[in-house]
Amino acid sequence: MAMKILVTDKIVDEGIDILKGKGYEVDERFGLSPNELLECVGAYDALIVRSATQVTREVIEAATNCKIIGRAGVTCDNIDVDAASEHGILVCNVPTSNIVSAAEHTMALMLSAAREIPAADAAMHAGKFSRDRFMGHELYEKTLAIFGLGRIGGLVAERAHAFGMRVVGFDPYCSAARASQLGVTLFDSMDEVLPIADFITVHVPRTDGTYHMFAAEQFAQMKDGVVIVNTARGGVIDEKALSDFMAAGRVFACGIDMLEAEPSAETPLAEFDRAVLTPHLGANTLEAQMRAGVNIARYVANGLEGLVVPTVVNMVSKEVDEAAAAYIPACQMCGSVLTQLAREVPKALSIVASGSCAGDMQVLSAATLSGMLSREGQASVSTENADASARRHGIKMEAQQASDSRGYDSIVSMEADGLEISATVPGAHREVHVVSILGYRLDVVPGDHALIFTYADEPGQVGRMGTILGEEGINISTMAIGKRADCREVLVFLNVESEPSSEVIERVAQAIDATNSWAIRL
Ligand SMILES: NC(=O)C1=CN([C@@H]2O[C@H](COP(=O)(O)OP(=O)(O)OC[C@H]3O[C@@H](n4cnc5c(N)ncnc54)[C@H](O)[C@@H]3O)[C@@H](O)[C@H]2O)C=CC1
Ligand SMILES: O=C(O)C(=O)COP(=O)(O)O
Questions:
Q1: Centre of ligand 1 from the C-alpha of residue 66, in Å
Q2: pLDDT band for position 332 (50/70/90)?
Q3: Are 15 and 37 in contact (CB under 8 A)?
Q4: Is residue 339 part of a domain?
Q5: Residue 355 C-alpha to ligand 2 middle, in angstroms?
Q6: Fewer CB within 10 A of the terminal residue: the chain, N end or C end?
Q7: pLDDT at 389 over 90
């Protein structure tokens, strides 16, 4: 019987023809309700979507025959990738299919907003030849600030240079080499960039960390008359705050392709002629759709045929040795902790694994890198693209097996920019135990929120920490104290049940005279 593929968002006919030509049965069913999707998805071997279909954990659990989900575009934020990995389902995308289109749409919105083209066009269509109403701004010799210097941000930088703009940027994960190659002056904080920009364009992923990254506090720091463009994701800009600053005349104009309420057109910006609004059209060109539709069809067919899928975004891009697979969460966790300890993505990573998990260093490296980059929505690291991803972020990686597993069945140890962490996964429960951090030996199973302090080992210190956290209503669920043979200081790892504010952390740090403190979120 032919394998069945469900396509729930429109892709080009050429993509559908490739699949049918290979003998697959293809059902195109657009606009399914969540319930309709849940009811039918179990019958299919593969699913192809764009951004409209929400592939939730529930959908993945109902997709009992599914082997691969193809995203005919770049961003997989409508797909629960972790759930797919847990169910052994590959997720792949076409990561460069629409980036030129998105970059060109950004320039189109920038020019339209700066020259009020939609309002002028609407006036002409209404029979009004009113030249005096419209007085725009040149791009030439203006400062463009790009937030997010990834694939699309980089293409926008190249195009902005052609207009004679000065290009500055903010992206905590962009290497100095990439910024210099793009001709972008990189700044370390948003606060330095906001006051100097005449134009601002946003190309960051939508994550907890970028939600309302541009709110009243940020608009207040901008130059009067700034033009703002968002072709990234709705919610990165607080639309209410933007409309307040437009109403006050502080923001000259904006160009917005992505609204928080998508797929609705509801936004407070709708009342402004100078808000140029488009309904998520960044990828809507024939060229981008041809690349996305044709390639996703090829990759999904490859996945079903057991061939290499070059753009897998989750970790199951190949048959993974079971012992190594058990260490994927440990490596992801350690990678994430390392980035948080370093307070930035480290630039050099060395991984040593010993014991039975060390059979597949490629998987362990990719998992660690995905953890290192995951905090800002950069988790699209697979065994296929790990090397390229590391290069793009300027990270030097090396991995090796070692024979001494220090008495554990398996252990992974990593060092990144001089910071160390080791973890093991004992027993059947598959809990990740961190057994060393920064050289301090301990044994702790990290929870969702943790605090780490290093301090002089003196009586009363634990009581001081407990008292302050108790006063603040923060429960400590578990605690481990790590020691180092060469040092009179200790390290405490506190799993806490809620996230303490930076003021609370500072209070604790002062009370114990901590030499270092970190809040870790996993
Ligand atoms: N309008 C449309 O139709 C399309 C929209 N997109 C959206 O465009 C955005 C960019 O896409 P790509 O360039 O492909 O992504 P990318 O992953 O190549 O680049 C994103 C960049 O943002 C940076 N970043 C992350 N958090 C940041 C922060 N807090 N501050 C500053 N920089 C931060 C990352 O380091 C990375 O360099 C995404 O939101 C994507 O969803 C993508 C394609 C089409
Ligand atoms: O690829 C992306 O990230 C996009 O935002 C494009 O989405 P679409 O395929 O047009 O629904």
A1: 28
A2: confident
A3: no
A4: yes
A5: 43
A6: N
A7: no
Q: Is residue 148 part of a domain?
A: yes
Other CB atoms within a 10 A radius of the CB of residue 2 amount to: 11
CB-based contacts of 135, cutoff 8 Å, min separation 6: none
250 assigned to active site = no
State yes or no: pLDDT of 376 exceeds 60.
no
CATH number at residue 64: 3.40.50.720
Ligand 2 nearest atom to the CA of residue 73, by list position = 1
C-alpha span between 21 and 313 (Å, rounded)? 26
Token reading at 498: 């809620």
User: ipTM higher than 0.85?
Assistant: yes
Verify whether residue 233 is a known catalytic residue. Answer: yes
Q: Count other C-beta atoms under 10 Å from residue 271's C-beta.
A: 10
The DSSP code sequence of 141-194 is TPEEEEE--SHHHHHHHHHHHHTT-EEEEE-TT--HHHHHHHT-EEES-HHHHG
Among 104-108, 326-330, 431-435, which range has the highest average pLDDT?
A: 104-108
The structure tokens listed for 435 are 């057994």
- Ligand 2 midpoint to CA 52 (Å): 9
Q: Which of 25, 61, 262, 415 is catalytic?
A: 262
Q: Where is 442: in which H helix or E strand?
A: strand 440-444
**Which residue segment(s) compose the domain that 106 sits in?**
99-277
CATH of the domain at 341: 3.30.1330.90
Of the candidates 178, 233, 375, 449, the residue annotated as catalytic is 233
Active site residue 420: no
How many Å apart are CA 225 and CA 298, to the nearest integer? 47
For residue 99, give the ligand 1 atom closest to its CA: 43
Atom of ligand 1 at shortest range from CA of 73: 43
Instruction: State residue 152's pLDDT score.
Output: 96
pTM: 0.75
DSSP classification of residue 457:
-
Between the CA of 262 and the centroid of ligand 1 the distance, in Å, is 18
Regarding whether 60 and 49 lie in a shared domain, the answer is yes
My answer on whether 25 and 160 are in the same domain is: no
